Amino acid sequence: MSDTITVVAVLRAVDGAAAKVAEILHNAVEPSRAEAGCRGYVLHHDRSEDHKFVFVEHWAGMEAIEAHRQAPHYQAMGEALKGLLAEREVMLLDAQA
């Protein structure tokens, strides 16, 4: 089993906010990829639900995830998303095979 932790974050924008949410999320991608513990960081847009976005991230461990959560660009993203999300689900996953 790898030390890598996969994070899957599903975000649903409130009605009428999908374009703004997409812009905010896109702005977080490059700085997140540049973090020392980041092993992969991809933003997806659901083809069937215009307001649904999914991050699939790979991190070197919990320390890297905690550092990411404290990073200025992550904090700015959280502030910018206030009031724009109807739902947010975050899963921290360990590979089993």
From TrEMBL:
Gene3D superfamilies, sorted: 3.30.70.100
Keyword Phosphoprotein attached: no
Molecular function GO terms recorded: monooxygenase activity
Coiled coil: none
InterPro entries the UniProt entry points to: ABM_dom, AI-2_Isomerase_LsrG, Dimeric_a/b-barrel
Keyword terms: Monooxygenase, Oxidoreductase
One Pfam family in the UniProt entry: ABM
Entry keyword rRNA-binding: no
Domain ABM: 5-93
Taxonomy, superkingdom: Bacteria
Protein name in UniProt: Antibiotic biosynthesis monooxygenase
